[in-house]
Amino acid sequence: MTQSGIYIAILVAAAVSFLVRTLPLTLIRKKITNRFLRSFLHYVPYVTLAVMTFPAIVDAAENPVAGIAALVTGAVMAWFNAGLFPVAVVCCVVVYTVGLIG
Amino acid sequence: MRKVILRGVRDGLPIGLGYFAVAFSLGITARNAGLSPLQGFIASFLNHASAGEYALYSLIAANAAFWEIAAVILVTNIRYLLMSTALSQKLRPETPMIQRMAAGFCITDEIFAIGIAWPGALSLTYLFSAFILADLMWSAGTMTGIIAGNVLPANVVSALSVAIYGMFLAIIIPPARKNKVIAGLVAAAFACSFAVNRISIFSGMSDGVKVILLTVAISAIAAALFPVKDDEETGGKAV
């Protein structure tokens, strides 16, 4: 692609990303009162994050055993309310260490 | 105000560190597609979406038409429509349009997650301070990846790439411990996601489409079976 083509491609992608991210936030300006919709939106964050986490965490590690070890360690730490950063760091260390052994 | 900014920086920094590592490997793809360090920085700052950017660089490398790029970005980022809808219920109804657009621009998987975890009506100061730090690190990571290429060994990149999933666990597991419905949903989501990712009939589907279909189906079933009372909702409370 030409230099100007690359810039246009970046701007096209940025514009589509911006619209997808901002349309609901700007169009839905009131509290939704429908109980089904409220419940649905209440559950969406947990479900979507869970769907994105597994099996992706296993596939992200080069060694699947390391990925499973990171998942279990991270879940146990999170159960005991360790914060975002400690859980993230320990997951990385687990994958690195298991990778060295395996 | 200062305390809220500091809290945003505190939560944005680990996200940013994970981003830097992921963006670094993304930068290698961008470099192969012919992007300059500046182009990589701009593309990452404006798009800040890993799957979407990966697709963008592949399409640039393939000399794809602009409408194709628009269509692929729409599909890979369609889950942000749902996140934006959920986040709309965390904002005060009187929030001005320009702030709503700015909050929408901030949405990534991780920034959305910490925004939802904020108790009561979302503080935009908190959201923006976490986002700006994380997005700058994301953009810097892409730029560094384009400049430095393959200096990090593969096992280090592999280890760093799980940081984001560790953060997701830290967000979804504590509420699951307190609430049996959420615990069941997390387990069901893991099982369904595993099935959809391993069964070959779904292999033609992009990851973004899989995420949105599973999220809509599982959340809708849960909403029908376990409607929440107003006081249970994260979005229902004012500060």
Could you explain how this protein is built, in words?
The complex is a heterodimer of chains A (102) and B (239). Helices cover 81% and strands 0% of the residues of chain A. With 102 residues, chain A is mostly helical. In chain A, helix 4 (64-79) runs antiparallel to helix 5. The relative contact order of chain A is 0.08. Chain B is mainly alpha-helical. Chain B is built from 12 helices and no strands. Chain B has helices spanning 2-32, 37-47, 50-61, 66-76, 79-88, 97-105, 109-117, 124-148, 154-160, 163-178, 180-198, 207-225. Chain B is globular, with a radius of gyration of 19 Å. In chain B, 50% of the residues are buried. Residues 234-239 of chain B have low confidence and may be disordered.
Describe the structure concisely:
The complex is a heterodimer of chains A (102) and B (239). Chain A has helices at residues 3-27, 35-53, 56-60, 64-79, 84-101.
What distinguishing features does this structure have?
heterodimer, A: 102 residues, mainly alpha, 81% helix, B: 239 residues, 12 helices, 75% helix, disordered C terminus
Instruction: Return the string of H and E elements of chain A.
Output: HHHHH
Q: Which two chains touch over the largest interface?
A: A-B, 81 and 106 residues
Instruction: Pick out the low-confidence regions of chain A.
Output: none
Give the terminus-to-terminus CA distance of chain B: 15 Å
Radius of gyration of chain A: 20 Å
Question: What's the order of the H and E elements of chain B?
Answer: HHHHHHHHHHHH
Share of helical residues of chain A: over 70%
**Count of runs of 4 or more consecutive helical residues of chain B:** 12
Q: Tell me about the biggest sheet of chain A?
A: none
Name the quaternary structure: heterodimer
Q: What is the average per-residue confidence, as pLDDT of chain B, rounded to a whole number?
A: 87
Low-confidence stretches of chain B: 234-239
Content of β-strand of chain A? under 5%
Overall geometry of chain B comes to: globular
Query: What number of domains of chain B?
Result: 1
* Structure summary, number of beta strands of chain B: 0
